[in-house]
Amino acid sequence: MNLLLTGTDTRTGQGGAYSTSAELAASAGAGNNDVTMLLHIAQDHHSASVISFPRDLMVAVPTCPQTDGSTASASNRVMLNTTLARGGLSCVVVTIEKLTGLQIPFAAQISFDGVTAMSNAVGGVTVCIASPINDLYTNPPLHLAAGQQTILGDEALSFLRSRHGVGDGSDLGRISNQQVFMAALARKVESGGVLGNPVALYALAKAATGNMLLSDTLTNPTTLVQIALALKDTGLANMVFLQYPTVADPQDVNRVIPQSTGATIVNAALVADQPIVLSGLPGRAAVIDKSAATATATPPPTPSTSASARTPGVATPTTTTPTPTGAVLPSTVTGQTAAEQTCSKGN
């Protein structure tokens, strides 16, 4: 199962602080898909991957139909986050299909107010903050002290949007910050038994249908429930979050392009429905929570190299369960599993 999620930065229809002329000038209409993520659930439900594609990734874009019946021409060099404005959600989908070689039948688009509503629907998420995060560029401004912080509503939105306040201030840092949040959310949902509770899942699915723009294939809440139920026995250690492999664009230092070796491995693994195995560390805005890793005596088996095995000074987990085979990514590819407890770090 392949599902594409985009997050638009449009201020249109967001109301409140986003209705000022300055905010609307920043982004209006369809907006930019500053967040583009692909969820792949294996056919046997034993593994799942969430791949984040950088907004500044330069990609080839196929022809994209327009709402007025015209067609945007294909191009060999387009910044990924412009594809939503170029041809709507379907244009983002066909671009990622072209990049990865996958067929993506499901897609969803979420805006600022949708993120706020969905974070409230799950009751907030507790994230670890390694060092204080302060970002005056988010709306509302973000101020988080070090330690365990439960965030929801507009604060969760600012946390997920924060770029200037985390890591090196780049979009690549923001991706790893979002992965800290997503992994913590996965742990909360799993520990609360939500993935095995169709009633709870249906309530979340209804919230999603009311706060997201969904492809025709997702408009029935039951479909969303079925997708979530496919993950109930996957296990946190088999849920992998990673940044699509990239390197600096030789034509523009402010852009990135696919890193050939890593991207080839990721694409092939997705098409062949293989688990993805990480060998690197979390990204620029995240660090392993060593105290949590040390306290975990026997983590669940995982196809991905564990956090403690990848971090000097942290006890290596012991298990007799055979490690499933998968596509091993180069150590330059960043990410984490949902089982790995990580912390976001301020810059």
Entry summary:
The chain is an alpha+beta fold. The protein has helices spanning 21-26, 83-100, 112-121, 153-161, 171-191, 198-211, 221-229, 260-272, 290-295; strands at 2-8, 33-41, 48-52, 58-61, 64-65, 71-72, 75-79, 106-110, 125-131, 133-135, 142-144, 147-151, 212-214, 239-243, 246-249, 252-258, 276-277, 286-288, 327-328, 335-337, 342-345. It has nine helices and 21 strands.
Helix content: 25-40%
Number of domains: 1
**Low-confidence stretches at least 5 residues in length (pLDDT < 50)?**
296-323
Mean pLDDT: 89
The biggest sheet, with number of strands, parallel, antiparallel or mixed sense and barrel status, is:
7 strands, mixed
Q: Total number of β-strand segments?
A: 21
Under the CATH scheme, which architecture would be assigned? 3-Layer(aba) Sandwich
Gyration radius from CA atoms, angstroms:
19 Å
CATH class: Alpha Beta
The side-by-side strand order for the widest beta sheet comes to: 13-8-1-2-3-14-20
State the assembly state of the protein chains: single chain
Judged by helices, strands and strand pairing, the structural class is alpha+beta
Shape: globular
Total helical segments: 9
Task: Describe how the helices and strands are arranged.
Blueprint: E1 2-8, H1 21-26, E2 33-41, E3 48-52, E4 58-61, E5 64-65, E6 71-72, E7 75-79, H2 83-100, E8 106-110, H3 112-121, E9 125-131, E10 133-135, E11 142-144, E12 147-151, H4 153-161, H5 171-191, H6 198-211, E13 212-214, H7 221-229, E14 239-243, E15 246-249, E16 252-258, H8 260-272, E17 276-277, E18 286-288, H9 290-295, E19 327-328, E20 335-337, E21 342-345
Parallel strand pairs: 1-8, 3-14, 9-21, 17-19
Antiparallel strand pairs: 1-2, 2-3, 4-7, 5-6, 8-13, 9-12, 10-11, 14-20, 15-16, 18-21
